[in-house]
Design a protein that fits this description.
- The chain has 416 residues and is α/β, with parallel strands linked by helices.
- The protein has helices spanning 3-17, 19-31, 40-52, 114-129, 154-160, 219-228, 230-236, 274-294, 314-328, 346-351, 384-404; strands at 56-62, 67-74, 77-87, 136-144, 169-180, 184-186, 189-192, 194-203, 207-208, 243-252, 258-259, 262-271, 298-307, 310-312, 333-335, 354-362.
- The protein folds into two domains: 3-191 and 309-404, Zn peptidases (Aminopeptidase), CATH 3.40.630.10; 194-307, Alpha-Beta Plaits (2-Layer Sandwich), CATH 3.30.70.
- It has eleven helices and 16 strands.
- β3 (77-87), α4 and β4 (136-144) form a beta-alpha-beta unit.
Length: 416
């Protein structure tokens, strides 16, 4: 059983030697960010590099666009197939950092670390390509577009176009600025929340602000709903379960002294438990309908289901944890807390067993402690080589575990 430890040591050394190259690649992506479903040049760059390193079946363009790349690395011996995934899209954020590699695409920024994901996975592909004789099976590299927008999801589009065909398991990574640079985090079971959104319209009858008795004011039920909807989480859901309902926008009216006909509320719902997620639409409707009736208004409720919770397969996550300990040392590996943010990696996990892990990139000494999506977001680039090593070590470990029978391919947890 010395095979894997020795190979992971080799991977770690290769990644360390590539550190400057990985940083340069990340800076290239950071300078040239592209929005969801518009990652054309990003995808072309990735595809060319993968072809240069000898990967096969390189395919570019998904969802009717030129965005997204998938490629295979077939080892010299047959075996199972493990996929590694990175997301590639940027955000509509005006960057405020003053680094030489700041965004050159005004109003667009890699403010969530996807540039780090791409550069680390590309490096892992190069490392593993040089180890082709040691690979018993196939490793599929998935560079996914359109993670940030929720819908239409890049993960769903790629799945619909066959990127998981023949794949037995999948792993993904996210850098995390709230965690110290170099610390690796894992978690079995639910780790990131589902994300859904709702629109609610209260319709009354407009009138003069000085004569509210001659109108039916939709702002009054709106105000009541904003307060009452919070009782779903505080008084209807087991307090040991996590549910968040947030109002993000209220729109209605035009001037100070006119009561409008209608007011609209826009909000989001987060949860970990799929059963609770299924009940939230009915709960919202009940609260909204009751308030509308009490205030002589009509209401319309629309709920859009976006992204399921990221739920890590326990046996596969243990394979990752062991690989991470070999790659970075046990003192640098810990369990992740639950996170209420969401990730469409969960769509892959609906189809096959998957695990999603985190790499800390926070370092207050260099200003790398701003939250994700901030215009000042940045990372400690010194750990990018660690990200490459984690991707490669997990891919090789998962293949060996599947090949040896220690890890069995099985049906993943189904979600709504």
């Amino acid at each position: 059983m010395d095979y894997l430890p020795n190979k992971i040591i080799e991977i770690k050394k290769s990644a360390s030697l590539m550190s400057e190259e990985i940083i340069a690649t990340r800076r290239h992506f950071h300078r040239n960010p592209e929005m969801s479903w518009r990652e054309t040049e990003t995808s072309l760059y990735i595809a060319r590099r993968l072809e240069e390193w000898g990967l096969t079946d390189v395919r570019r363009g998904f969802g009717g666009t030129e965005s997204g790349v998938v490629a295979d690395l077939a080892g010299d011996a047959p075996g199972p197939c493990v996929a590694l995934r990175a997301d590639i899209d940027a955000l509509p954020v005006f960057e405020k950092n003053d680094a030489d590699w700041r965004s050159q695409n005004l109003g667009v920024m890699h403010a969530c670390g996807h540039d780090a994901h791409m550069s680390a996975l590309l490096a892992a592909a190069k490392i593993l390509a040089a180890m082709k004789p040691d690979i018993r099976g196939r490793i599929r590299f998935i560079f996914q577009p359109a993670e940030e927008i929720g819908a239409p999801s890049g993960a769903r589009a790629m799945i619909g176009e066959g990127v998981l065909d023949g794949v037995d398991a999948i792993g993904g990574m996210h850098v995390w600025s709230f965690v110290r640079a170099g610390l690796v985090q894992w978690k079995s079971g639910p780790v990131m929340a589902s994300s859904d959104r709702f629109d609610i319209k209260f319709t009354g009858m407009g009138g003069h602000g000085a004569m509210p008795h001659d109108a039916i004011d939709p702002f009054v039920p709106t105000a009541a709903f904003v307060h009452a909807v919070q009782t779903i989480a505080s008084r209807e859901i087991n307090p040991l379960e996590a549910v968040v309902v947030s109002i993000g926008k209220i729109a209605g009216g035009a001037v100070h002294n006119i009561i409008p006909d209608e007011v609209e509320i826009y909000g989001s719902i987060r949860a970990f438990n799929p059963e609770i997620r299924r009940t939230m639409e009915d709960r919202l409707r009940r609260v909204a309908d009751g308030i509308a009736s009490a205030h002589r208004c009509q209401c319309e409720v629309k709920v859009e289901y976006l992204v399921p919770s990221v739920t890590n397969d326990a046996p596969l996550t243990e394979v990752f944890r062991r690989a991470a300990v070999l790659a970075v040392g046990e003192g640098n590996v810990g369990e992740s807390p639950h996170l209420m943010v969401s990730e469409d990696f969960s769509f892959f996990q609906e189809k096959i067993p998957g695990t999603f892990f985190f790499l800390g990139v926070g370092n207050p000494a260099i200003g790398a402690d701003y939250p994700h999506h901030s215009p000042l977001f940045t990372i400690d680039e010194s750990v990018l080589a660690t990200g490459a090593a984690l991707y490669a070590a997990f891919g090789l470990s998962a293949l060996e575990s599947l090949k040896s029978g220690l890890l069995k391919a099985h049906e993943p947890l189904k979600q709504p």
